[in-house]
């Protein structure tokens, strides 16, 4: 039965994770956990300057316990966190202008490296698919690319300028080493390396003239195959973009992204986060305290794919939702983080 | 008899008439052009004063720009020279990437057209130098700078950011959670602006 055919799908609250003493900004599920006998693990970060690690009590349990609270890592709000693809390293980006790299040692996490260079608040950090590159972005309008070297050495590969305002998020493509960034300047920029020479440049800018957003773009997410990207914005719309994936994967960095469809009218306030699950469900979290889920609609028009609302969970939190993240495994668990200081774990299941 | 008087009258007037032959239209021409004349005189005066003042201003700006450019290039030259010495002593101390960047910086500083401030390529060259410098410092994990080193964010930007925020806040001042997002004791746009400034300019 395909997702579309399932009926009575509901988003039920499984657990509320409390502990943060200020708004929770970011979340990330640890890769390769939550499946095959390994309990799921989740990291969260927030305005209370802490990074918290949560672990599922057992693979059959729905409860999560706080494994560790990391307080000394940053001196200001921790804005974003991301696991390396192998789950070996954890990167945390902070308003203190640094990005910390952490490693797990038994039950403890220690900071093995600190990346400095941004002039002010770092907003986001992202690992590429192979874990060989790391990208960070900041209010200083720059995007930095770092190479991960043995011995926890990080070489700065490039400092990319181009955005004219605060860069909100960076995200690597799931299969190709192409970097995406979105900003307060309403655009999404695509960055690729010219040859093999550390020469990274902006190969495309998705702005209002290409049917782009008309206000700050807060987040981007890719589908499993990487041929589509979804973005969300302060303009209260969600946009889906597509690319010729065969061209992109064959190394043609000029393969350009085109607008496929715009979803509007589902949220009436800024949409801060969007995440595409491996199964194809798009989740969004917004300042209207609601979570929306979208799936591809069966009736394809001539113009391309269309998306429909699967469900809207009103008042999912008491305040703005800053991040929504699907678990990387097939358990259809969704985590959401909010200004109310809590993280909620939801399960998408049929009620029949 | 009258004919003789008239011709005598004309004879008397002749030199005068001949003398005025170079005025094209009429003898009142000069007084009508008085406004234009004064305009031209005034313009001339203003131009000369402005020219002198502009020259002084230009000299001041030139001195200042020359100093800051020289200071920055000199700083890079110093760093590059030290790094090159280190590489000569211990060739493997820096990664290939860092060494490549140092070499590129060296070339840029050497090629920089110091005596041609109007050369169009100077802005790009300086921007490129700054980026490479930041990348090298980040990789080497060092913080090198001097008083007056140019930064990305300047006071004007902060002002614009604060104005944007005030507009956003005022637009939806009934939305209580926005207030809390920026500070618990903020009630008015001016308090909000102060808390933003403190947040933006506070120490890391």
TrEMBL record, chain A:
SMART domains: WD40 (SM00320). It holds the Pfam family WD40. Keywords: Repeat, WD repeat. It comes from the Eukaryota. Transmembrane segments: none annotated. CDD domains: WD40. Gene3D superfamilies: YVTN repeat-like/Quinoprotein amine dehydrogenase. WD repeats lie at residues 17-64, 115-148, 160-191, 210-241, 314-352. SUPFAM superfamilies: WD40 repeat-like. GO terms for biological process: iron-sulfur cluster assembly. GO terms for cellular component: cytosolic [4Fe-4S] assembly targeting complex. Belongs to the WD repeat CIA1 family. HAMAP family: ciao1. Essential component of the cytosolic iron-sulfur (Fe/S) protein assembly machinery. Required for the maturation of extramitochondrial Fe/S proteins. PANTHER family: CYTOSOLIC IRON-SULFUR PROTEIN ASSEMBLY PROTEIN CIAO1-RELATED, WD40 PROTEIN CIAO1. This is Probable cytosolic iron-sulfur protein assembly protein CIAO1 homolog. It comes from Tagetes erecta.
UniProtKB/TrEMBL annotation, chain B:
InterPro entries: Essential_protein_Yae1_N (IPR019191), LTO1_adapter (IPR052436). Keywords: Signal. Residues 1-20 form the signal peptide. It holds the Pfam family Yae1_N. It comes from the Eukaryota. Residues 42-80 form the Essential protein Yae1 N-terminal domain. PANTHER family: GEO13458P1, ORAL CANCER OVEREXPRESSED 1. Belongs to the LTO1 family. This is Essential protein Yae1 N-terminal domain-containing protein.
């Amino acid at each position: 039965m395909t997702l579309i055919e399932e009926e009575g799908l509901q988003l039920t609250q499984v657990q509320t994770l409390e502990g943060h003493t200020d708004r929770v900004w970011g979340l990330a599920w640890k890769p390769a956990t939550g499946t095959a006998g390994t309990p799921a693990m989740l990291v969260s970060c927030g305005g209370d300057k802490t990074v918290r690690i949560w672990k599922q009590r057992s693979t059959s349990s729905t409860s999560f316990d706080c494994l560790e609270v990391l307080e000394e890592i940053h001196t200001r709000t921790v804005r974003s966190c991301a696991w390396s693809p192998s789950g070996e390293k954890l990167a945390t980006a902070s308003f203190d202008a640094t990005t910390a790299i952490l490693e797990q040692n038994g039950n403890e996490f220690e900071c093995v490296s600190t990346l400095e260079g941004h002039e002010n608040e770092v907003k986001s950090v992202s690992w590429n698919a192979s874990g060989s590159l790391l990208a960070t972005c900041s209010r200083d309008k720059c995007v930095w690319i770092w190479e991960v070297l043995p011995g926890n050495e990080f070489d700065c590969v490039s400092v990319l300028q181009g955005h004219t305002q605060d860069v909100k998020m960076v995200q690597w493509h799931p299969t190709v080493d192409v970097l995406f960034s979105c900003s307060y300047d309403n655009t999404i920029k695509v960055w690729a390396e010219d040859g093999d020479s550390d020469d990274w440049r902006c190969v495309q800018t998705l702005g209002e003239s290409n049917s782009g957003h008309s206000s700050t773009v807060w987040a981007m997410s890719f589908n499993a195959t990487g041929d589509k990207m979804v973005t969300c914005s302060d303009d209260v719309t969600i946009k889906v973009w597509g690319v010729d994936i065969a061209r992109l994967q064959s190394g043609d960095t000029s393969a350009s992204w085109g607008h496929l469809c715009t979803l509007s009218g589902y949220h009436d306030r800024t949409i801060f986060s969007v995440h595409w699950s491996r199964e194809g469900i798009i989740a969004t979290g917004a300042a209207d305290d609601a979570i929306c889920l979208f799936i591809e609609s069966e009736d394809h028009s001539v113009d391309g794919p269309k998306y429909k609302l699967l469900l809207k969970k009103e008042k999912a939190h008491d305040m703005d939702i800053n991040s929504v993240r699907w678990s990387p495994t097939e358990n259809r668990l969704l985590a959401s983080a909010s200004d109310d200081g809590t993280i909620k774990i939801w399960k998408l299941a049929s009620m029949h | 008899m009258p004919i003789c008087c008239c011709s005598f009258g004309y004879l008397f007037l002749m030199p005068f008439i001949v003398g005025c032959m170079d005025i094209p239209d009429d003898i009142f021409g000069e007084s009508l052009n008085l406004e234009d004349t004064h305009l031209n005189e005034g313009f001339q005066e203003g131009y000369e004063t402005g020219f002198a003042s502009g020259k002084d201003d230009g000299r001041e700006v030139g001195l200042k720009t020359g100093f800051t450019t020289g200071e920055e290039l000199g700083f890079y030259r110093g760093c590059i020279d030290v790094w090159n010495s280190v590489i000569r002593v211990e060739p493997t101390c820096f990664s290939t990437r860092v060494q490549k960047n140092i070499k590129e910086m060296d070339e840029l500083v050497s090629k920089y057209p110091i005596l041609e401030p109007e050369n169009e390529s100077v802005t790009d060259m300086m921007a490129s130098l700054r980026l490479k410098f930041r990348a090298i410092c980040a990789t080497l994990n060092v913080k090198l700078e001097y008083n007056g080193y140019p930064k990305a964010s300047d006071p004007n930007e902060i002002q614009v950011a604060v104005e944007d925020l005030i507009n956003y806040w005022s637009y939806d001042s009934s939305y209580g959670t926005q207030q809390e997002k920026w500070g618990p004791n903020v009630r008015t746009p001016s308090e909000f602006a102060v808390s933003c400034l403190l947040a933006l300019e506070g120490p890391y």
